[in-house]
Write a structure and sequence with these properties.
heterodimer; A: 451 residues; alpha/beta; FAD/NAD(P)-binding domain; 3 domains; five-stranded parallel β-sheet; 9 helices; 22% helix; B: 688 residues; 19 helices
């Protein structure tokens, strides 16, 4: 009989769930399918309505779970199969190779420095973030080790200069790589932590309960939403968040993709893509985007008070404590709020400025507005990975792809399977504070399961 | 420990380029190496990263360092991390001094790298001077038993009680009304997604569970009258209505779940002048008791007393009005139902409810933020005038039922409970959690957690979840059997004590008792370390661990060693004022660099002597910064500080100093600009 619990997802919900359970005295496995815990919050610049620096308040919690004797963190790992036998969940995990020996790597970055090949960071999208083939997820990553891009294997990046010299042996067979620059650099530091021959690893766990904390994803702009595919200077609000972030691709300079010049005139479009046919856009209000945009305008104004910031919106969602005051603060900072939903975007091919056409709902007039940078608040959606996980856990998803609760009114956070609980973005659109509250409640349920 | 034994290690952080991009960190490190007692100074790119922390521990051990100075971001977020690191390296964590050179230097003097570097050196020098005088401290471990008091028997409270009791702990629910259920008792039915249930049935199901649980004891018609003690050993006195006798309980942890109430409109929308004008809760009540009658024209007005200068969004009004509009349409299909709104604030499935309402014929009309509908009575008819934003026209709706979606405030017991537990509230009359993002279910005070509508208006489901979450917070120490409290506490040296009793009288936590021989005695577990007693003691015989007079004066002297006439000594409280300073930093507000900040836990710690000493050393000015009124993390330390400031000005004048050079600012943790502006004005007025 196991007295441990499994928390799936290492974002702010998973971290809080694990932390509470561990303090209670329960042993916790905290898994994440990316190389570091931290989740969405680790990529944000600030949090509303206090404008706390996001990583600054999250990192201490990340280190706390990392240091807690009752918690084992397993990253880059997916759930493959779960079977419940006599009240115990037998869980089969697959740990994707990082091609790095986690025990030996100290995150010194010597390998990153020598790696000559940079590839676009998919998480930074259009704002141009690049990362090396061997890289750390972000500076505060936990565990603080690098990951090698799988495309490096079998000398596949040799053309780019990642390996010097020839090699006839298959990476998976070799135990000493004479040609990869990262391997050499690591050896020079005396660590031998990079292991290109590493293979995926199967892990088996036994736990008494499981908490699903897989989080949400940012809704991608679908089709050519408001010129997103066609025009360089149309970006999503997540990409804008990366622009603002001192740790982001532009070191916090709010510059537009086309010419890297500081954007002086910026517009935000709320509910971008909402209600599009075929379930392509978010069919609902995502709850947080109004405050995200208020935050982004306030921070933009703090960077440069002369920036002209306009928010096009429909229904203002200022639902939480201090949120309305936060919206007022944006207005006091001369952020212009216009009721209306732009329906067309044109680009001036010479200046790469964008012109929006919209109906001003207050006046009923058709208007145009020209900006240098356009930000789309596309909302948040259920995580793509939910489907596969639901199958493994034998749980149901709702029409929107979120995990279904047994009875959200009488047994919140419980699922059709006894001993499996939900929290955070797995249940629907949600903000950080609500995720933390739910995670704490889910941890209560999970530790109380009697094996 | 003799002087020669003091071995200080200084760790200066680059924070990537956050610090190193402005401050010449290698120069600061080199400067630190030259300071007395410093045996090692090191630069770290990311001091908080796991690899640097272990390097730091290695360096501490290798160099036999016994005092640690970390110069990096802000103690508000990172002190616990470095304390743990220090402790794991074998150094008592109270021998760590945290110096803030990001929020107080690199982020706020970005355009003056040389000046910023000099200021960083000064701050490090002050940190080292204090570190040399630091003394070991110790966490105080307190046993915690398994009795949990839950104030409020609504949904959050009942869920909390069940979660607590299911673990075998004892739960005591105190409900001031005769029935369990709270505000839900006034509601007809609740819904979420496709789930819908009469509220009465939900209450009954939970109340039955609660009543039949062997570990839950319920006190209805009862109020908490007195709370004495602290986590692990509270004595709680209950008073039941119509019963003269009192009841005492021994309690270990407390959950506050006191709920909320509607704010009835006053002289607005003709409310109170006609029984056909009611609030949304009153409508729910009518629906519940099937007293709606035959209505033909229902008009609902949203955002009554919400989203204005003083209050935010009520959070639940839109969803409630849609839900009730549907209910009316189902009862009276021929009735015209209008919802007049500013913003339809509905999320996820709530949008589906709105579509259903529209299908049933409910009409949604939007009015401008600054042009609310008007209700008037004419020849016995009710008329609602609205400017429809979409059509751009004003017209009147005839109505036989006007429903106002009002704002909410914390239940009327909030003030009383706040006083008993010494916890914070916000201006809206709700309890204030410890951190809006990461501490949603607890107060700053150990052992007291918070759930449901006592914190902010929320849905039934959110309340239920919070009840369970708050139970977890309360259960952790009950399960462990103890808590550890921080060792920053008052310590009385009786040698010079004149037994005046002032300390005992002034302590906001009743933590200083006078014994049979009239000697004061600190109950350390109760002491919060604000330092009010120490600052007021006429014989200067009270010390505060980590904030002793000697340590503070060492910082002052180090700061003023060079060019004192250009410098300001700023005493800043750890909570809101330092929060404001940090906010100014995070917001990159640029302000003059003359101030040298000295952190104290509360502005009440700053004694008259601390206000005067910098002037004796030639300082240009002194600033005392504390929390904005009425907030104070030590109940009313800032009020005490304000009074003392007035007295200090008189004293300064007598001693021949210009009292105008003693400044104060009371600023919130969100108010970076206020702190930055204070700095600018001070510089101007002091002619620097």
């Amino acid at each position: 009989m196991s007295d441990s619990i499994l928390v799936i997802g290492g974002g702010i919900a998973g971290i809080n769930c694990a932390m509470n359970a561990a303090k209670y005295g329960t042993r916790v496995y905290l898994i994440d399918d990316t190389p570091s815990i931290g989740g969405m919050m680790a990529r944000l610049d600030k949090t509303f309505p206090t404008n706390d620096c996001s990583i600054c308040i999250e990192a201490p919690q990340m280190y706390e779970v990392d240091n807690h004797e009752n918690i084992e963190i397993i990253t880059n790992t997916e759930v493959r199969k779960v079977k419940k036998i006599n009240g115990t969940f037998k869980v089969k995990l697959m740990q994707k190779a990082k091609y790095v020996d986690e025990e030996k790597c100290t995150g010194c970055g010597a390998c990153v420095e020598v790696c000559p090949v940079s590839v676009p960071d998919p998480l930074d999208g259009k704002v141009g973030g690049m990362r090396k083939l061997v890289s750390m997820a972000f500076p505060q990553a936990v565990p603080n080790v690098v990951t090698v891009d799988p495309s490096c294997r079998f000398g596949d990046m040799r053309k780019g200069g990642a390996c010097i010299g020839d090699c006839a042996v298959d990476c998976s067979q070799c135990r000493e790589c004479p040609i990869a620059l990262c391997v050499k650099a690591c050896e020079k530091e005396g660590k031998k932590a990079i292991t290109l021959w590493q293979s995926n690893k199967k892990l088996d766990l036994e736990v008494k309960s499981i908490v699903v904390a897989t989080g949400i994803k940012n809704a991608p702009p679908v089709g050519d939403l408001l010129g997103y595919d066609k025009f360089e200077n149309v970006i999503t609000n997540t990409e804008f968040e990366r622009l603002m972030n001192a740790g982001g691709p532009t070191s916090g300079e709010i510059v537009r993709p086309s010419d890297k010049k500081h954007a002086k005139k910026i517009a935000w479009i709320q509910c971008a893509g909402r209600g599009l046919a075929d379930g392509k856009g978010t069919p609902y209000c995502s709850k947080i985007c109004c405050m995200v945009s208020a935050k982004q305008t306030i921070i933009t104004k703090e960077h440069d008070a002369s920036v002209d910031a306009t928010i096009f919106y429909n229904d203002l969602k200022a639902y939480g404590k201090g949120f309305w005051e936060f919206y007022r603060k944006a207005k006091e900072n001369d952020v212009r709020y216009v009721r209306g939903r732009p329906y067309e975007v044109f680009e001036d091919s010479r200046t790469h400025n964008l012109t929006l056409r919209y109906e001003d709902l207050d006046s009923g007039d058709l208007q145009t507005h020209e900006v240098e940078l356009l930000v789309l608040a596309t909302g948040i959606m259920a995580n793509d990975r939910n489907k596969r996980l639901a199958k493994a856990l034998k749980l149901k998803l709702d029409d929107l792809g979120y995990f279904k609760e047994k009875d959200p009114l009488l047994s919140p956070l419980e699922t059709d399977v006894d001993g499996i609980y939900l929290c955070g973005g797995a249940t629907g659109p949600i903000d950080i504070a609500e995720s933390v509250a739910q995670a704490t409640a889910a941890s209560m349920k999970a530790v109380c399961v009697r094996p | 420990m003799s002087d020669e034994d003091i071995r200080i290690g200084v760790f200066v952080c680059d924070c990537g380029t956050n610090i190193a991009g402005v401050v010449d960190v290698p120069a600061v490190v080199a400067f630190a190496r030259g300071l007395e007692h410093v045996v090692l100074a090191d630069e770290g790119r990311w001091s908080c990263s796991v690899d640097y922390l272990s390097k730091m521990q290695d360096l501490i051990r290798e160099n036999e360092i016994n005092r640690v100075v970390v110069a990096s971001c802000t103690p508000r977020t990172h002190e616990p991390l470095f304390k743990r690191t220090t402790k794991e390296a074998g150094v008592n964590p109270y021998l760590l001094e945290f110096v803030s050179i990001r929020e107080q230097v690199s982020w706020v003097h970005m355009k003056e790298p040389e000046i910023a570097t000099e200021k960083a050196k000064d701050l490090v020098k002050m940190g080292v001077a204090k570190a040399a005088l630091l003394e070991e401290g110790q966490e105080i471990r307190l046993p915690v038993k398994t009795d949990c008091l839950i104030i409020g028997g609504g949904m959050a409270g009942m869920n909390a009680a069940l979660s607590v009791a299911d673990q075998g702990f004892n739960a005591y629910i105190v409900e001031k009304e005769p029935e369990l259920g709270g505000v839900l008792n006034q509601i007809c039915f609740i819904s979420h997604d496709n789930h819908k249930s009469p509220a009465a049935r939900v209450i009954k199901a939970r109340a039955d569970q609660v009543r039949s649980h062997p570990r839950i004891k319920i006190f209805t018609d009862t109020q908490v009258d007195k709370v004495d003690g602290y986590i692990g050993s509270y004595t709680v006195t209950l008073k039941t209505n119509g019963d003269e006798s009192e009841q005492n309980l021994d309690i270990s942890t407390i959950i506050v779940a006191t709920g909320m109430q509607e704010i009835e409109p006053a002289d607005q929308f003709e409310y109170g002048n006609d029984p056909r004008i009611i609030t949304q809760l009153q409508l729910d009540n009518k629906l519940k008791f099937k007293q709606l009658g035959d209505v033909k024209n229902v008009v609902m007005v949203s955002c009554v007393n919400s989203k204005n200068e003083t209050r935010g969004c009520c959070n639940i009004g839109c969803h409630t009005s849609v839900k009730n509009a549907v209910a009316i349409k189902q009862l009276c299909p021929d009735a015209d139902v209008h919802i007049l709104y500013r913003d339809m604030s509905l999320i996820k499935e709530e949008g589906t409810a709105q579509q259903l309402a529209k299908r049933l014929g409910v009409k949604f009309l939007r009015f401008p933020d600054d042009r609310y509908p008007e209700v008037r009575k004419q020849n016995g008819d009710l008329k609602v005038k609205i400017y429809d934003l979409l059509v751009g026209k004003e017209f009147e709706l005839l109505s036989d039922l006007v429903v106002l979606s009002t704002a909410f405030k914390g239940n009327n017991s909030v003030e009383q409970v706040k006083g008993l537990l010494k916890v914070s509230t916000n201006p809206d009359g709700f309890f204030q959690e410890s951190h809006v993002k990461l501490g949603p279910l607890e107060f700053a005070t150990d052992g007291i957690s918070l759930a449901g509508c006592a914190k902010a208006p929320m849905t039934f489901r959110e309340s239920s979840e919070e009840g369970i979450g708050a139970a977890m917070k309360a259960s952790i120490p009950m399960q462990k059997g103890y808590i550890e409290t921080e060792g920053i506490v008052a310590d009385i040296d009786l040698t010079d004590c004149s037994q005046c009793g002032l300390c005992s009288k002034r302590c906001p936590y009743s933590a200083i008792k006078v014994d049979a021989e009239e000697n004061p005695d600190v109950i350390k577990a109760l002491c919060k370390g604000c330092g009010l007693c120490a600052a007021d003691c006429p014989n200067e015989c009270i010390g505060i661990v980590h904030y002793s007079d000697d340590q503070v004066f060492a910082q002052v002297e180090a700061a003023l060693e060079k060019a004192p006439a250009e410098k300001i000594i700023a005493y800043v409280c750890h909570w809101c004022a330092l929060g404001g300073v940090d906010m100014a930093g995070v917001s990159r507000l640029q302000y003059p660099s003359n101030a040298r900040l000295i952190r104290v836990m509360c502005s009440a710690r700053v004694s008259m002597k601390m206000m005067q000493r910098p002037f004796e050393l030639g300082a240009a000015g002194v600033l005392v910064a504390g929390c904005e009124f009425p907030t104070c993390h030590y109940i009313e330390g800032n009020y005490a500080a304000e009074k003392r400031l007035k007295r200090a000005q008189k004293k300064l004048a007598k001693a021949g100093f210009d009292p105008e050079k003693l400044w104060n600012v009371w600023c919130s943790a969100a108010d970076g600009p206020k702190f930055a502006n204070t700095m600018r004005t001070m510089i101007q007025d002091l002619g620097l």
